[in-house]
Each structure stands twice: as structure tokens, then as C-alpha cells.
Give the backbone structure.
Amino acid sequence: MASQETIRHVEPAKASFINDPKVRGIITQVVAVVALTLFVWWIVDNTIENLRRANIASGFGFLNGRAGFDVGQNLIQYSSDSTFSRALLVGLLNTLLVAVTGIITASIIGFLIGIGRLSNNWLIRKLATVYVEVFRNIPPLLVIFFLYLGVLSVLPLPRDSISLLDTVFLNSRGFYFPRFLWGDGSWLILAGLIIGIVIAFFVYRWARARQMQTGQQFPVLWTSLALIIGLPLLAFFIRGMPLTLEYPQLSTFNLNGGFQIKPEFIALYLALSVYTASFIAEIVRAGILGVARGQTEAANSLGLRSGPTLRLVVIPQALRIIIPPLTSQYLNLTKNSSLAVAIGYADLVAIGGTILNQTGQSIEIVAIWMVVYLSISLATSAFMNWFNAKMALVER
Amino acid sequence: MKNGLKILLGVSVVALAAPAASAATLDDVKAKGFVQCGVNTGLAGFASPNDKGEWSGFDVDYCKALSAAIFGDATKVKYTPTTAKERFTALQSGEVDVLIRNTTWTISRDTALGFNFTGVNYYDGQGFMINAKKLQGINSALQLSGASVCVQTGTTTELNLADYFKANKMEYNPVVFEKLEEVNAAYDSGRCDVYTTDQSGLYAIRLTLSAPDDHVVLPEIISKEPLGPAVRQGDDQWFDVVKWVHYALLTTEELGITQANVEEMKNSDNPEIKRVLGMEADTKLGTDLGLGNDWVVNIVKGVGNYGEIFERNIGASSPLKIARGINAQWSKGGLQYAPPIR
């Protein structure tokens, strides 16, 4: 006969402390952090010890030293008496200038070429394809060299400059045009311009709200143009025409006076724009092809021609697909601007290289480069992520 | 996981306890079997490769002299071409054993960069070159206000240029490149009016331009540029070796020992010649330096004396045709003076 077995309530066997998954997780993480810290400390200690043994100076104090060299392009006041840190600032501003102008131009060209590749016109389609295939497959340095050496070899010397009505000059030393000299009271013109822009912005918002409510359109573009150009012009005449033009004049070696854009900047700006535009064109094409075909058909059935369809229906939806890879291309352009040293444009890498050579403190300069480029890249991606979030489709 | 942790701890302990590597470059070079020499990427007369990739030049011959002194064979050299920007990092990091690359001896390079200069193998100065055909009437550097000047980055040239124009209250537009080839191309294409570098370099570069006779070197010398080999600090024996190879080259020229007559000079009765060539009985001069006692004989057999190196590469037998000038021996009114080998 089956004996009555008392079923004792048995506690589940307690897992040993070290086999508990949570505990193991914590131990592994602590060990990893300690190992990483040890590794980093070892590297830094080795570096400092090696530098001390080789009698190479270290530390960031050298940044206050006198630079001693001149820079060809500077957006802020700089001379050979300025400090090394000011020289680096000049280089940083030059990098940002070429990066920002390059990004804007590359986006415009890229969008046009990308849309061109999807055109119904056979010639435009083929030209756009050729453009993309050519510039995507050439290293950026070669494009820069080609534009710099190719452009330079075609342009004449200063005394034989190509000129338009003797006011705008183009020669191998740069692109010269007249500069405004601000006389007394010319601040009113600037004020007029700012007021014009602000009023135009508010007119735009008011016109949109009015169109949403009543459906009536308002000629926003012409009104804005009138405000932005008309108000400063009004201020100009009220104050008795305080602006004068300074024309470039030929002297022994170069043209003096006026506003000069150096050929190094032109070559780098054009090369970066044209090279990155070929990548942006493909991204734009991918974005447009990614919008469902039904959207285009629906827009066409409503009577919208292909232009407005593209502008009002397809591109806003395609932007969701376009913006993330576009961020990468913008960062690529910013980093490719460091190739400037090959053609003598004084960007951050070029000036940092000169300082590195004069002071011998390579590690500090490379650290500065890394931090600066990382900051620029993070700022750009943060902005683009905000823009992406703004463009995201809000689903109900 | 436990084994991995043990291995990691073991590696860290061993690595942290590793003794500091001693800076005995001569022993490293002898073990390697060749000298790693940092030279210019391509400066005619000083260091340039021919179309077969063989290097020749004034600085290259110094590298060969060093190799002859250590190994008895002038061909045991490997050349690392370096631009003006990367030459110092190459020497600091140990990528090259010695930097013989027409480098100016200055205080900041001696101290902040951690180098020792082993002597001056060429006394030079900075000058300017212009295209006389396109810029007529310019015959002095003081007329160059407003000019565009091509210069290489990271050199004493760049700093001297800024100082000179500032001291004379003149303006200029610097056009700065990293590589020598880019500077040459920009000057040749007319991007800048003036080219500035050491005068020996100006003569060398003029030969490579598209129309050498159109270009003129202006008479002003605006700085002192004592060019010489450099080694890392902290290695006195290697410093002595490189230094005394230079002085051996000068001494043999003084004594009239040439590549052609060194064998018969070994049998000379002149006590000084016997001592320099290591023929004195029980001599220790070579071994004290860490080399063989026939080190001077090997140097002269390999490359000749200082005068022969000069003539062959940058003097009368070369396209540059630079006069000895201040690089003549002290006995002939120049600045080259070697301490005695005794």
C-alpha cells in the first residue's frame, strides 16, 4: 500500500551568491571599469614619462607664446605678434567659414542634381548621372588639386586681370570687388535691413495663418523683397548717401583695396561643394524614390503639375529619409576641409601643423584638433537631429 | 571569467614593471645593420632621388659617411624622406636615428624639442628669389612691399620672413604650403611674386623651374641659417659618433686626404695623419668612440672628405655651382673648424 507521503513544502534551493545573474553583472561591469581606468592611466603615465625622458616640453602653456608667423587669410585681427591661441582661433574661423559655405552650396547643388537624375528629360538625366559618377569616384584631394592648379593656370597675372567695367577683377591672386566704406550715419542702413527682415518674417507668418483660415493667397515673396531692399535704401537716401565704394587699384605687385577672395578659398570651397554634392544627390534621389508612388499619382490626379507636386507633396515626405544620411555628409565635408593644407588655405589643421612644428608639442596640438573637430561634429549632428525631429511626420 | 581576469592583471603588472628602454642608438643601429636617416623629400644638391630611386646629395653623403664609419660600408643606409612639418616628429618618436635634412640649429629646437645638434655642416642664410622678367626694376628686398610671398610651413623661414617685413615696416601676403613641391608649383605658376628659403635652396629650386634664367636671387641675406644634423637628447654616445664623423670629414680635408689617396696616406710618416687614420700603434681613438679604429679610413673611402662632398653635390662640379664662401676651411678664411682628433 502507498504510504502517505507528507509533501513537505520545500524551499527552492538558494542560488549561491556568485551564480546570481545580477551579482555577476555588477562584478563584470566593475572589473571592466577598473581595467579601462588602469589602461588609460598606464597610457597617460607612459606618455608623460617618455616626454620627460626625451626632454620634450609638455603642457598647454605654450599657447600664450608669440606666434611669429603671418597668416594669409584671417577673419579677425591677427599679426605675427599675436599668441598661438589666437592663431588657432583664426584657423578655426577659416575652417568654419569654408565648412558653412560649402555645406550650403553642396546642399543646393546636391538637391538639383538629385532631382535632375529623376527628370523626364533624357539629357538632364544623363548629365546628372555623369556628374555623380565622376565626382563620387575621385578622391577629394584630387578634386581640390585640379581646381586649384587648373583654375590658377588659366587665370592671368594681376596686371592683366579680367575685369568687368573696371570694378570687379579676376586674376590668379583672387577675386576682387569693391568694398563699402561705412561713413557717418550708415548704421541706419543696417538697422533698416534688420527691421526689414523682421517685418518680412512676421508678414510671412500672418499670410500663412490668413491662407489657412480664408484660403486667400498673399504675395509674400514680393512684399518681403520690397521690405528687405526698400527699407535700407530709404535709410541710405535719408542720411544723404553715406556709403562710398573702395575700388581695387593695381599697384606694383597686386591689386590693393576692395574686398578680396583668395584663390585658395575659392578652390577649396568649390571642390568641397562639388565633391559632397555628388553624394548628397544620391541621398536625395533615394529619399524621393522612397516616397510611395501613390502620393505622386494622387497629387497628379488633383491637377498638380510635376513641379508643385515635387515641392509640396514629395519632398516634405522625402526629407524624413534624406536628413539622417545628410548629417553624415555635412560632417564629412567639415572634416574634408582639413585637406586645405595641401593648397595653402590657412585652416585649423594647417595652422596647428605650423605651431606643432615650431614648438614641437605634437600631443597637445593633436588633442586640440580632436576636441575641436569632435565639438563641431557633435554640434552639427545635434542641430540636424533637432531638424529631423521637427520634420518628422506627426501621426495621429 | 576568472582566467581572463588573471591574465589581465598579469599583463598589467608585467607592463608596468617593464624597465625603461635605454637610449643606446649606436647599439640599436649595429644590431639592425643599417642607419635610418631622415632626409629631405627632394631638394636638388642636398637630398633627391634619381629616377631609379637612388638617393644622392650633400646630406645623403653625410648619411653614407655615418654608415661607412659604423659598418665600413657606405651603402648600409635607409632613407626616410620627411617634409618640413613631419621631420621633428619623426626624430622625436624614434622613426629615424638621425635627421640630416638641412635643419637650422636654433635654441628652441635644442631645448623644447629635445634635440642635440651635432655641428654645422653648411652655414647658410635666408634670401629671396623673384621672376626678374615679370617684375622689372626690382633689385632689392626692400622694394618688396605688398608682394605675395611663397613659403613652406613650419620652418624658420616663415618666422624670419615675418620679422624682416615687420622690422622694415613693409606689408606682404604670405602663401603657405606644406610640401616643397607645392611651393615650387605655386611660384612657377605665378601665384606669388617672391620665393623665400635658404639661399642654397633657392639656387637648387631655380634649376627645377620652367625657365630658370628668368629668375634672379636678390642680394639680401636676412638671417643666419646654420644647417646641421640633429639627434635625440639623452644619448651621449650616439651624439659623439655623429659629431665626430662631421669633424673627421673636415679634418681629412685639412690634411689633404682624399678618396683617391687615402690608401697611400695610410703609409705616411706624418704623425698627425697616422693618428687620424688610426695607424698609430695601440690607438684607442676609434674604439673609445664605439667604432673600429679604421673609422676615418672607411669614411674617406666611402664618400671622400668635406671638400669632395661639397664639390660633388653643390659646388663647381654640380649644376648648382655654389662657391665655398663662408663654408671654406678656417685656414682659408671660412667658418669650418674641426677640433683636433687626438
